[in-house]
Amino acid sequence: MLDLFSEEAPWSEPLAEGAVILRRRVRDEADELMTLVEAIASQNPFYHRITPGGHRMSVAMTNCGDFGWSTDARGYQYSGRDSVTGRRWPPMPDRFRSLAVACAQEAGFTGFHPDACLINRYEPGAKLSLHQDKDEEDFNQPIVSVSLGLPAVFQFGGFERGEATQRVLLEHGDVVVWGGPSRLRYHGILPLKPGIHPRTGGFRFNLTFRRAFR
Question: Could you tell me the pTM of the whole model?
Fold first, then answer.
C-alpha cells in the first residue's frame, strides 16, 4: 500500500494499452482543487441520483461545465441543465480544464477538450458498479479521473462485464487516464472503507473529465 504522506515524486503506472495511473499527479494542488469543488457544490449541491430502475445511487453527484451527466427515470444522459433544479451547471473552472488537458497529454492523448466534469462524493459503503463510459458522442476522446480524499479500490476490467478485473488502490492525488484501445473498458469502485482524511474528512471525491459532445 502506498504511504499517503510519503514525499515520493509522482510517477506513471501502466494499466493497459491506452490506460495509465499518474500517481500523486495532483497531490500538491489538491487543496486548491477541493476549494473549487466546494465552491461548485455551494452552487449545485451533491445529490443522490435515481437510476432508471428506481434505485438510489450510493454515490452523491454534482457537475460543472457546459454539460453534466445525470440519471433519472428517463435514463442516462448529458444535459446543459440539472434535471433536479432546472438550472444550468456551474461553469468549469479554468484550473480544472487545464489540469485535465495536461494529464491527458501526459498519458499520450492530445487534443482533449473536456466539456463536462462529473464530481462524485463517496461516503463509507458507497460504490460504483462496473460500467462503461459510453454516453459520450466521441470515443476518440479519453477519460481523465482525479481522486481526492480517502483511498478507494478501483476495478479496471475488459470489454464485457464478466471479464476479470484488475484491482488497484487509488489515493489522494492520483489521476487515471484511459482512452484509445481501452476507452470502453468496464471500470468501477469497490465499497469505500471508513476513514478520515485530513482534507476531506470521511469522504472520497472523484472528478471525471469527459468530452460529451463533438
Answer: 0.95
